[in-house]
Design goal:
Porin
Length: about 425
Amino acid sequence: MRKIYLGVLALYLGILSSYAQTTPPVKDSSNYQSRKLKVDEINFVSAYYHQNGNHSAVTGGIGTENLTDFANTIDVQLSKFNKAGRKNTLLFELGIDHYTSASSDKIDPYSISSASRQDTRIYPSLNWTQSNEKTGNAFGFTGSYSHEFDYQSFGGGFNLTRLSANKNTQFDFKANVFLDTWKVILPVELRPPGYGSGSHKDDNRPVDSKPRNSFSTAFSISQVINTRLQALFIVEPSYQHGLLSTDYQRVYFNGDFATGAGPNGDIYNERIENLPGSRYKLPIGVRFNYFIDDHFIVRTFYRYYMDNWGIRANTAEVEVPVKFTSFVSVSPFYRYTSQQGTRYFAPYGQHNVTEKYYTSDYDLSTFNSNFVGLNLRLAPPNGVFGWQHLNMLEIRFGHYMRSTGLNSNIATLNLKFK
């Protein structure tokens, strides 16, 4: 029900002490050291996100966009060498988001509170990668699942890494597919007779479901140019097919037609959002990292985005990590985005009834945005706060401002255990 999945801090109890190996490796005639499956590292990320605005797509481009999201992810990386000396790595990740959205509650404003006002998303994934530590080459596969009250998703992926002989050039390829099924939830006043709400536990009336399939790839080349400068070039083409509109988002027109009567007898000059059933996306990005000296690094990034809905966007970002010591750094960052909106967008009440496709979702509109923040990173050699297993702690805060009036704040905590 929301476009961004983010979240904040929760205490994380120690879980590493039981993972130490107690059995010594056994050598054989091939000089191979057999090893048990061991834990390499554990990462915990927790974040809190809050936004405000007055252009909710649920109510046709007007109304509150108030939303909060509390997200937590934990990933556990385990590894084991096989008989051929290849390293097999398993990365298990579990994410849990909980959000509340005032605008989603307007799907049925005649109820006291709908189930769509808040929900929890759960999304586990598992990646297996086999790598050659001598050459740096690797390949792997990923499986994932995600569930929320109005959809479920099954995903699969493949990743490949190749390094040059001198390891100054690295090529990465990723391919992913996500097969989603969405409940077709409609605004209360636009539901056909007998059509369910799709969000109430005590509502047994039927609700349609439709697929949304996404296919994406990523090609990247990173190059060490010299001892101070590194560069990365990335292309990420993708394709979506199926239900790409959000059917509980209203669109109001400038004509005088009437589409139906609401529970109080009101006549609505509206329809549900309608967008094409396919979408091609092509982001192209380049990154440069310049190491000024032992204390200052300049990281820059630029991305150009285009799709067949007519959206064009330019994004530029700069981050300057400042190392006070070898294990304490502060990184201010700034990102600017300028987007040309889709041809299918128009504000509240400005669509023409003859249009084939239409939306009043300001995420698809023309806008400029600014995102500014600060990152604090601690990675002392003896562990954070003297705890040897707590290898790294990061705290990140960002403030987002969009020309449409949307503002948001996000605070994130990242803990790494080794």
